[in-house]
Amino acid sequence: MEQIKDSFLRWFKYNRKANQNFIEIFGLQPELPDEAISIFGHLLNSHLIWLNRIHPLEDMEIPSPWDALPAQKFASVNQQCYQLSEWYLQDEQFGQTLQKVITYQNSKGKEYQNSIEEIYFHLLSHSAYHRGQVAKQLRRADIEPPVTDYIFDRREIRKMEGDNI
Question: Would residue 164 count as lying in a domain?
């Protein structure tokens, strides 16, 4: 099970970096498509919502999935999502093993159950899906989106480490 935790840590680190690459592009543009900002805000809001379902985030107001999130807050929320994800994976004081099943309500109040492992996988795939939507919005506005494919990230890391596998 430790290997899966290590993989999730690596994937959440990649997710933070991929998000940060978009945030840097946003910061360079005087004008961005409203839809791109809305979708990216949803990506970050949803991350917090899912983490809160796993373990309540005390002293923190949890947004709704499509609440407006100003682009100026993207970097801090992205970092917060990563730190909380990393903390949850490394700290089992809450009995939060990957196999633990969580009962939660979706945004419409319907109750569901999923394992933490399933939730983490959903979080990561949800983020990748919406980054793709944001990339499409940026291209429509003649803004070149960053390359955030996981495989390119792994190649870059291996190159920096001197391993060209």
Answer: no
Q: Could you tell me which residues come within 8 angstroms of residue 27 by beta carbon, excluding any fewer than 6 positions away?
A: 71
Coil, strand or helix: which one is 122?
A: helix
Q: What is the pLDDT of residue 32?
A: 95
Q: Which residue has the higher pLDDT, 67 or 91?
A: 67
With respect to residue 123, please indicate whether it lies within any of the assigned structural domains.
yes
Which residues on adjacent β-strands are paired with residue 135? none
Domain interval for residue 68: 2-159
Q: Provide the percentage of residues in the chain whose pLDDT is more than 70.
A: 94
Is the separation of the CB atoms in 48 and 63 below 8 Å? yes
> What one-letter code names the amino acid at 27?
G
Find the CATH number of the domain harbouring 137: 1.20.120.450
Q: Is residue 131 situated within a structural domain? A: yes
Reported pTM: 0.91
